[in-house]
Amino acid sequence: MGSRIPIHIGVLLDRYEIVNKLSVGGYSIVWAALDRHTGMHVSLKALKAAHSEDNMELRILQHLARETQHPGRRHIAKLLHHFDVHVHGKKNLILVMELLGPNLRDSRLAHLGDIPAFNRLVSRQLVFGAGLSTLEWYSARRLPQRYTPPLDQVVQGDVTREDGAPLPPGLPRHIVMPLYRYMHPHSRPKLEQLQIIDFSTSFFATEPHARVLTMEHVAAPELIFRMPASPAVDIWSLACTIFYIATKGRIAYPWGDDYAILPCLNLVIGESSAQWLLN
């Protein structure tokens, strides 16, 4: 568990009743919950304690919420509320956002009859959402759509010790399988509206990080060669993402050390890779 907090189905956090698990990430676990005040279902992103103090993702979501007139606003996650939970001497930040559906990989299965149209729809909405931000926003794993899933379908198992002894404090009594892992692919609706929701490794352009965390196959050459980042790295990552969505392939397949990507870049983008080859 590390710095995570144990959360169980039926538990009330602030005004939110936990009803299902949606996904698991490196920095957080996302739960579906019922807002007891409004009667609406929402998602709760429970962050690790180590990432809860002065959280950059919270600051970014609050900043984006003020950009109400931008055409890409509806393709960015909407922060509804946030609060802290104190358990076993740890403080964990909870981000409350709109309840969304499965990721692009799963949504694609509902569009097998017309993949080109799906690719165009996703690419257009992704560009709109990315255009709202003047910061490093990219996340390859979290691009879900608006959709109300069957939240009453819960798959969970008890947690026990092999020696039969009681569980130590801080461990969950049950393990819940994320909802979308066991849903039948064809039970998912077609994609209508995509949202970018994961800003856990993002930062403001005015507060650059020494290290930008982006997966290698979508990382701009500046990042691979440890050069200063600029908004250009987001454009590169966006292009690589759209290319992957459309072709299921990668622009570059580097092997060995970082410099192995140079011939890949030259093969794919031609003369515009000259500056990297010369340097």
TrEMBL record:
<dbReference type="GO" id="GO:0004674">
    <property type="term" value="F:protein serine/threonine kinase activity"/>
</dbReference>
<keyword id="KW-0418">Kinase</keyword>
<protein>
    <submittedName>
        <fullName>Kinase-like domain-containing protein</fullName>
    </submittedName>
</protein>
<keyword id="KW-0547">Nucleotide-binding</keyword>
<dbReference type="InterPro" id="IPR011009">
    <property type="entry name" value="Kinase-like_dom_sf"/>
</dbReference>
<dbReference type="InterPro" id="IPR051175">
    <property type="entry name" value="CLK_kinases"/>
</dbReference>
<dbReference type="GO" id="GO:0043484">
    <property type="term" value="P:regulation of RNA splicing"/>
</dbReference>
<dbReference type="GO" id="GO:0005524">
    <property type="term" value="F:ATP binding"/>
</dbReference>
<keyword id="KW-0067">ATP-binding</keyword>
<dbReference type="GO" id="GO:0005634">
    <property type="term" value="C:nucleus"/>
</dbReference>
<feature type="domain" description="Protein kinase">
    <location>
        <begin position="16"/>
        <end position="279"/>
    </location>
</feature>
<keyword id="KW-0723">Serine/threonine-protein kinase</keyword>
<keyword id="KW-0808">Transferase</keyword>
<dbReference type="InterPro" id="IPR000719">
    <property type="entry name" value="Prot_kinase_dom"/>
</dbReference>
